Amino acid sequence: MTQSSCQLSVNSTASSAGNVTIVDNKAATTMGALILSLVFFLGFPGNLFVIWSILARARKQSVTTLLILNLAIADGSLMALTPFFVIYLVMKNWVIGNLMCKILFYLCLANMYASIQLITLMSVYRLVAILWPRHVTLISSRKIVMRVLVGIWLMVMVTSIPALIFREVRCKGTTAVCDSFHDEDNHVVLQYMLELVLGFLIPYGVIVFSYIRILRRIRQTRFRRRIRSEKLILAIVVTFCLFWLPYHIVNMIQVTWALCPSGTVKTILSKIWHRGRAVTSSIAFISSCANPVLYFFAGKSYIRREGFAFMARLFEGAGIDSGMRKSRQNSQNSKDKDKEADAVMLKEKEAESTNNSSSTSKPVKNGK
């Protein structure tokens, strides 16, 4: 959409005369564009490498590996969208039309939901595998896992529909902005409260509960060798929270602004979320490029031995089910060794008793 078409467009009516937009602040848009550019050059090839490592180099795909694969697909898809937003922030004008406005923000929201739901599922699976290891085989079959993943993606597609409904290109003078219906307070409250509840509060409530139980059990049992893989998953969880928290804080400020009556407070809140939206949204994108970096540092001990397959070996080692198989094999081996030792001790006792009996019978013969 050009500046002249913005002036003539019927669908792009002015949101509120004289109101600022999210691209008006030069410092915020410049910082946001720099962050998104860096995120794209790090995150897009990084997530592609994770996908390639799992599909081409992993010998066997465990439940954890499948979850990380889907997480990389979601993150990589989000990274592929960043050039559009870089252009938007640099030009300070939405130039690719109303349809792309709806589609791009729908895909962004869908990938945000997908990432947090997959991380939540990863945490719940670790909880079941550590607290109730006998029941983990009931949920770890490939067919069940694939059905759960399909269900998650379908749910994500449905919960992201508000972005298609509430997003559109609007004009302020000759500037086109892809934004929500800010003159409709109920739309703002519904959209951002859904994101806050479904994309942050509920998932992180489940995640925090899961890891409190997991860490308690690790301290109480002999699972300490699994602490390395638990640290990797916990790092993914904490990273996602840190980078998305500012975005959800701005969402809450905007919801408060929508519910607040006109006055000085409403004006202040309006300035805060308008100035903070571009930067916090860009920071949220960092979470999608951070995971490959975490994988690299977690798996760097494999690099010399495995080469480009180091990440596949890392994911195979991080699988809780593979760890359980190894522990069962070790326990079985130890049982076999104990049986062998018992058999040897029994033979030694039998030999010793035979020697004792023969030694006691010799004096009798000499006496005869």
Topology record:
Blueprint: H1 3-8, H2 26-57, H3 63-91, H4 97-131, H5 136-139, H6 142-159, H7 161-166, E1 167-172, E2 175-180, H8 185-220, H9 227-259, H10 264-298, H11 303-306, H12 310-318, H13 320-367
Antiparallel strand pairs: 1-2
Helix pairs in contact: 2-3, 2-10, 2-12, 3-4, 3-10, 4-6, 4-8, 4-9, 8-9, 9-10
Word description of this protein:
This protein is mainly alpha-helical and 368 residues long. The chain has one domain: Rhopdopsin 7-helix transmembrane proteins. The chain is 80% helix and 3% strand. It is built from 13 helices and 2 strands. It has a two-stranded antiparallel ribbon with strand order 1-2. Helix 2 packs antiparallel against helix 3, helix 2 (26-57) crosses helix 12 (310-318) and helix 9 (227-259) packs antiparallel against helix 10. The longest helix has 48 residues, at 320-367. The radius of gyration is 30 Å and the shape is globular. The protein starts with a helix and ends with a helix. Residues 8-18, 320-338 and 364-368 have low confidence and may be disordered.
